[in-house]
From TrEMBL, chain A:
It holds the Pfam family Complex1_49kDa. It comes from the Archaea. Residues 127-288, 293-368 form the NADH-quinone oxidoreductase subunit D domain. The keyword Metal-binding applies. This is NADH-quinone oxidoreductase subunit NuoD.
From TrEMBL, chain B:
Pfam families: Complex1_30kDa (PF00329). Gene3D superfamilies: NADH:ubiquinone oxidoreductase, 30kDa subunit. InterPro entries: NADH_quin_OxRdtase_su_C/D-like, NADH_UbQ_OxRdtase_30kDa_su. This is NADH-quinone oxidoreductase subunit C.
Automatic annotation (TrEMBL), chain C:
HAMAP family: NDH1_NuoH. One of its GO terms (cellular component) is membrane. The chain crosses the membrane at residues 36-58, 105-127, 139-163, 175-199, 211-231, 252-278, 298-320, 332-350. GO terms for molecular function: NADH dehydrogenase activity. Keywords: Membrane, Oxidoreductase, Transmembrane, Transmembrane helix. This is NADH-quinone oxidoreductase subunit NuoH. It holds the Pfam family NADHdh. It is found in: Membrane. It is a multi-pass membrane protein. It comes from the Archaea. It comes from Thermoproteota archaeon.
Length: 368, 152, 359
């Protein structure tokens, strides 16, 4: 953006002491109207998880690893577990794969509902949607509690399978929740996605072209909202996704509305996946015994979390703790894309919350 | 192009700069190169072989072999293939050329590798603390193996 | 029994007051009881304060119900109706201070004047053929607009007096928004004036006895309603309140009871504009033409219509997010003003037909 007149540039600190920024700080350089630069300030929630994992056994390490993105704990925990299994060459029984898929999709719905609610609240002052999503999440949190015993910090996946089998009555309850939720999705579409004033706030705002999205390294719905079809569930074909029938949600426009549409469509696909997985659940064991010490090797796993693709590279040295765990976090990349956005397209100060929440960065996994 | 062909294309063009190359898993290639060849091989990967989607970068500390290995993870949209570009550097004076001119995002990842491992990236525009606070002690690199976590 | 003059004067009062008062006070009350009733009860102080109470309570409960929650519950055993009083009491005991370097006189003057100016505009609205606090005759509508035009002045003063770079930006935005909303209001009201031929609010209401002006002035009706939301900074136009990262725009630096008074400004503005809206377009204190005159008193009809208009404004708050400032300004300048002008042209062209409808 070329500053043609000598306007006074202010540096506004958006966060961390801010109602809607989360635990992060963006420094906006603006002249009151246009935003010329967004400088992200990382590190408020850096906990050194990669270092901590070197001091925990494989099973112990799942709990701190999930803290990378608690709202989406199943997908994130799955990344670590799969990396370990990849390193040691452990095959997971079929039934465990299906159970993992179900929990991952429940987690994905939770995360998208949370993101949508906060986006409506932060960007539009539309707290009704925020409270509706909070209420609807309760159903899924209760489902997860029925399955794993925890509402959202599951630690349910262990190398070799899952901790417990599906309890009695879970399938009926899940089907009831899903049919109610599908009606609620229609309500969300009508009152939020197709709300005229919301459309004026988010359509055409923060446009990201496909080439820029690829070059800058955007992840997840931010990438798919710009027309790039990349979904780890179809690329890596992990767990039961290979045998289930679902589409990848892609939108072409690349603006904020497209990214929100991608999340909305992904929720619809998740309900389909959960239904199919429950119908076709194969019998068999739900976990396999795994020795505490694993042989030397290295493993790499890529998992599609709700925010994008998370890669975990694990190096084992023959003891019962990993030697090094490297996490490539999706929100780190998305925050980088946000910081480059004012150079690519026009952003006003009032658009900043809409843009940031359309990328849905989860600051804890950017900081690790 | 399959994974073997990618490895062949790189070793044909860069010969002795490639120290080691292997196919880690289906669709995942790992090559280890000498630090001098990093920028040219990276440019070759991006322009000729189509590795355009950067995923991240991190380092691994091997005190037993007295080296720190820096790994770059890049994905190719067209080939649907992942490559791990690795380079070793001696532990007592770790220096590597920066790849932020090749893939812009590596800017941030290299800052993190510097503050966690102490690798100095030559040519980096802004080598400052990213995740650690500004008043962190000089010369203390948390992710190295000799930094012990104060465990209870 | 001792009969003295004071007893005789007291007996003339409509309501016997058992407290012994000095004679001149009793005489004053006896002669002016109607005006005093108007000033204190309706449409005066008690009405405005009660309106705030009821409107805020209704808004909080309605919003809560739409958002699947409950809203105020415990304050006041029935459905939390005393919540606003509790909040006001809490605000009174908070520390009242001005930021360093602020212009103290102006800073504290604004919360005093800001709610009173829209309340002052309410005195011009007729609540019945004789029930009007200030009969301005041929200047009624003009005086109303003159009073409400002072509001952006106070806003800018508040923003400037706070000695804060960001509040002055917020205040200026609030002023832009108000101007963009006020123009369509004037022009739409001009349509009514052309049709009625007078600025006198009582006469405008009287002319609507056969048909409310909402029907011949349909475009102006819609324009006035939308612009009214903009002028009182209701959602979807509550931009200066929350848009910027500047917490609360021009109200940021106020604490304690000053803050409480400023929060009532929004509802006082809504009250003033709604009353004008009802007077101009919805027949004022008269009942619906079908029912014929004299079914119920003017005050009753005013309250019913006020309730409906305010309920619609609150309902719009639930279903809409807010606009960006440039979008709201574009709405005002590019769409509402031309619509209001179209209304005037139509009125001028079709005045005889419209008058025939009203007869």
């Amino acid at each position: 953006m070329v500053v043609s007149e000598a306007k006074e540039i202010m540096r506004i600190s958006w966060g961390p002491q801010h109602p809607m920024s989360g635990q992060f700080r963006f420094i906006l350089e603006t002249d009151g109207e246009n935003v010329y630069e967004i400088i992200p300030d990382f590190g408020f929630t850096h906990r050194g998880i990669e270092k901590i994992l070197e001091y925990r056994t494989f099973v112990q390490g799942i709990v701190p690893f999930e803290r990378l993105a608690m709202v989406d704990a199943a997908n994130v925990g799955l990344a670590y577990v799969r990396a370990i299994e990849d390193a040691a060459g452990i095959e997971v029984p079929k039934r465990a794969q299906y159970i993992r898929t179900i929990l991952c999709e429940i987690s994905r719905i939770n995360s998208h509902l949370y993101a949508i609610g906060l986006a409506a609240e932060a960007a539009g002052g539309y707290p009704a949607i925020f409270l509706w999503t909070t209420a609807d999440r309760e159903l899924f949190l209760d489902l997860a509690e029925m399955l794993t015993g925890a509402r959202w910090s599951y630690a349910f996946f262990i190398p070799g399978g899952v901790r417990a089998d599906i309890p009695e009555g879970f399938k009926e309850r899940a089907l009831k929740v899903l049919s109610y939720f599908e009606k609620r999705l229609i309500a969300y579409r009508d009152s939020w996605l197709e709300n005229e004033i919301w459309l004026t706030r988010s359509r055409g705002v923060g446009r990201l072209s496909a080439e820029d999205a690829i070059k800058l390294g955007a992840a997840g719905p931010s990438l798919r909202g710009s027309g790039v079809e990349l979904d780890m569930r179809k690329e890596e074909k992990y767990e039961a996704y290979e045998e289930l029938n679902f589409k990848v949600a892609v939108q072409k426009e690349g603006d904020c509305q497209a990214r929100f549409m991608v999340r909305f469509l992904e929720m619809i696909e998740s309900t389909k996946i959960i239904r199919q997985a429950l119908e076709n659940l194969p019998p068999g064991p739900f976990k396999k015994p795994v020795p505490p010490k694993l042989p030397k090797g290295e493993g790499f796993a890529r998992v599609e979390t709700a925010r994008g693709e998370m890669d975990v590279h694990v190096i084992l040295d023959g003891s019962d703790k990993p030697y090094r765990v490297k996490v490539c976090a999706p929100s780190f990349r998305n925050l980088y894309v946000i910081s480059k956005l004012p150079k690519l397209t026009k952003i006003l100060v009032a658009d900043v919350p809409v843009v940031i929440w359309s990328f849905d960065p989860w600051y804890l996994d950017a900081d690790r | 192009m399959s994974e073997e062909e990618v490895i062949k294309a790189i070793s044909e063009n860069f010969g002795e700069l490639v120290v080691e190359s292997k196919v880690l898993r289906p669709k995942k290639v790992s090559i280890t190169v000498k630090p001098e060849g990093l920028v040219s091989i990276a440019t070759f990967l991006r322009d000729s072989l189509g590795f355009d989607h950067p995923l991240g970068a991190g380092a691994i500390d091997y005190p037993a072999e007295n080296k720190i290995q820096m790994v770059y993870y890049i994905w190719s949209m067209n080939r649907r293939m992942l490559i791990m570009l690795r380079a070793d550097t001696p532990r007592d004076n770790p220096r590597l050329p920066t790849l932020s001119s090749v893939w812009d995002q590596m800017n941030l990842h290299e800052r993190e590798a510097w503050e966690m491992f102490g690798i100095v990236f030559e040519g980096h525009p802004r080598l400052e603390h990213l995740l650690l606070p500004e008043d962190w002690e000089e010369g203390v690199y948390p992710l190295r193996k000799d930094y012990k976590l104060p465990e209870r | 029994m001792l009969i003295d003059e004071r007893c005789i004067v007291m007996a003339e009062l409509p309501i016997p007051i058992p407290i012994p008062l000095p004679e001149w006070v009793v005489e004053f009350i006896a002669l002016n009881w109607e005006t005093l009733l108007k000033i204190i009860i309706i449409p005066g102080l008690a009405f405005i304060l009660l309106f705030e109470l009821v409107a805020v309570w209704f808004e909080r409960k309605f919003l809560a119900d739409a958002m699947l929650r409950i809203g105020p519950l415990y304050c006041g055993r029935v459905a939390g109706w005393l919540q606003l009083i509790a909040d006001a009491l809490k605000l009174t005991v908070k520390e009242l201070f001005a930021p360093k370097g602020a212009h103290k006189v102006l800073f504290y003057a604004v919360p005093v004047f800001a709610p009173t100016i829209p309340a002052l505009a309410v005195v011009l609205i007729p609540f019945g053929p004789d029930w009007i606090l200030f009969r301005a005759g041929g200047a009624g509508l003009l005086l109303f607009f003159a009073l409400t035009s002072l509001i952006p002045v106070l806003t800018i003063l508040a923003g400037w007096a706070s000695n804060n770079k960001y509040t002055i930006i917020g205040a200026l935005r609030s002023a832009y928004l108000y101007i963009a909303a006020e123009m369509p209001l004037f022009i739409a009201a001009a349509g009514v004036v052309i049709l009625a031929g007078t600025f006198d609010l009582v006469e405008i209401v009287e002319l609507q006895s056969k048909m409310w002006f909402a029907i011949p002035q349909f475009i102006g009706f819609i324009t006035f309603f939308i612009a009214m939301l903009g002028a009182s900074e209701r959602v979807p136009f509550d931009i200066p309140v929350a848009e910027q990262e500047l917490v609360l725009g021009w109200r940021t630096e106020y604490t304690g009871i000053a803050f409480g008074l400023l929060m009532t400004v929004e509802y006082a503005c809504l009250l003033a504009w709604s009353l004008l809206f009802i007077t101009l377009y919805l027949g004022g204190y008269q009942g619906p033409p079908i029912l014929g005159p004299g079914t119920a008193s003017g005050i009753f009809w005013m309250l019913v219509k006020l309730g409906i208009v305010v309920a619609i404004a609150i309902f719009l708050r639930v279903v809409f997010p807010r606009y960006r400032i440039d979008q709201a300004l574009r709405l005002g300048w590019r769409y509402l003003i031309p619509l209001a002008l179209l209304n005037i042209f139509l009125t001028l062209a079709m005045k005889p037909y419209m008058l025939a409808l009203l007869k």
